[in-house]
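Quick one, T. Sequence first:
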Amino acid sequence: MAAKVFHDGTVLSWNEDWQSIEVLHHTSILINGDTISAIGKDIEAPADAEVIDSTGKILTPGFINTHSHLWQTAYRTLAPNTTLASYLISYSQSSQAIKAFSAEDIYISCLEGYYEGLNAGVTTYVEHASNNWDLDVVKRGFDAAVDGGARVWWCCAAEDREDVTAEDVFEYIDTLGKRNPAYERQNQVDLAPSSMNEVLLTSRRELGLEAITTHDLGGPWPIGHNTPSIAANKGLQDLDVPIIFSHGGLITEENRAALRKHDWNLSITPESEMHYGHGQQTSRLVQDHASLGVDTNWTFSGDILTQARLWLQSVRNVSYNKTLDSGRIPRENPMAVEDAFLLATRQGGRAVRRDDVGVLKVGAKADIVCFNGNSPNMVGWTDPIAAVVLHANVGDIEHVMVGGEFRKRNGKLILKEGEWEDFSKKFAEAARRIQAKVNVPPQPEKFMGVAEFGEVESMTTRRQT
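Structure tokens:
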């Protein structure tokens, strides 16, 4: 692979001494292989290096999505007004909707999820692969992670199902990782257990896990109670593996302390938690051990930039309202734009305990996003971090690189195999066919037979007569 140079851009680099972003104007990035080998104004590049003119551009690290379920991408727009209870009953891996998917559909659906993210500058995923109802769909989800072109921590959701046990899945993913050298270059087979089952987890040390991810809901939800304190009580810190708890919108002080003590992470998925009604009250209090995820990209956009912006403004809103409720006027802004940017980049790397992803520095993986700073909505910027977080959109992303290879160039996706135009037709056909097969059952009187439903204050734009 020939060396590449992003020449004369504004680089949002990571300063280890400051532990924050350092803005470098008129700066170049030299890439050798899959790694950044130099950052500076006067880089001596090899004569045969490929030079990408970055004048007027903003160069950022690739964004990191630390929670997703990409097999569901083919549901896109199917249930725009659903709730979490309805989702679990009607569209999740525990519903009858899975009968609409063939193993090949899983592959196509996951690939589209990765392509959508790459188009939006998402270079790294922690994929909570809940497509687990038989080994064929497990494998095709795995294959999509290999073929999609992103950097993936592929966490297979192992649980006992009608036709396959958790132990079957454990054994299967062990062979998948060992027999696929292409996957091992930039991806990792990991686990996403449905419960903190220490017997199963500790018995699989030989898998060489790099990450474990699991859901944590809390509050009145009768499922997803996989809290950091429970994990610690079961001794899972002895695995010395990063654990990522997703959602955690009602996370308690005890569990915030456990996250910090064991260097675990909370993946906040702002749009999902607002859309579905998970509850989102306290995770802002543990942002030092948090990152951002998308969750179900079929219900909204799969880009992390949107999540960063939503989260920033929702945190600001909560803090402002606390001050206003006291009868006083806010004195300062409670959350900086840089913090939102770091949640979308550096904090994702920390979630998987990697110092070489989510940052631009010498020795880091060459996962790079190039924004057109002269677009109609970005031109005139002086603060590049604010330009990206508050003003950019997916259309401003010209180039996306993962491990030194372009996955988007000059605004056009570059697939590892085939062309986008052909794939998009295949995906659209699969989505129409799958959605036509999904039947939504009536809502039960109690959720999972135990939890009471409550009335929700509804809003409308219809004028009152």
